[in-house]
Automatic annotation (TrEMBL):
GO terms for molecular function: DNA binding. CDD domains: LuxR_C_like. The keyword DNA-binding applies. It comes from Lentzea tibetensis. Residues 150-215 form the HTH luxR-type domain. This is Response regulator transcription factor. PANTHER family: HTH-TYPE TRANSCRIPTIONAL REGULATOR YHJB-RELATED. GO terms for biological process: phosphorelay signal transduction system; regulation of DNA-templated transcription. The keyword Metal-binding does not apply.
Amino acid sequence: MSAGPNETEKPLRIALVESLPLMKRGVQTVISGQSGMEWVDAVSSTRAAVELCESVHPDVLLVTSGGDPGWNRCQLLTRLFTRLTVVALLGREARNSDSIAMARLRGVRALVPLEAHPDRLVTAITAGVVLGYYIDPDLAIHATAPDGGRSAGKKSLSRRELEVLHLVSEGRTAVQIALRLQITAETARTHVSHILRKLGARDRAHAVARGFELSLLPC
């Protein structure tokens, strides 16, 4: 007798990096009540998160902006565990275009408000895994801004510079961009420099934020 579709599909295994007991208990309750998802564990440090990923291999790791304000933990974990999907729960302090752009650069696949309804957390997890990138509608307004020279921004970047900007938004280095576009690393750096100047950006993260604001990058 053949197995049904629900029997053959493995549940998504979800873990959390958080130190607050109430937060841990709340997320565990949400995940444990979802079909197609399996609660793994909660840890409170980067070292413990690395050990958890090495030993248990969760599919999804939930993090909070308060626990990883510079998204450095996310960057480390996504580089060490390339199949891991990181979903970020954003507090009010992180709801701005720069923070959201930096989160994406550091490997976050989905973003949702910290106080969102449990159903929206589940949606963010699922979309992050299936689509590769998702931002909750309540956060999208912070990733984009009203038109302030939007069309001018589109015209100022060449097609090649737009390609480079998209790769920068994925966290690619100059060498990786060069390999993808079959150009030299120096040429890639020159394109990045031109992008920063044209968008009035102070660094790569700010350029990605500006890309969102000007609708040069998809939210």
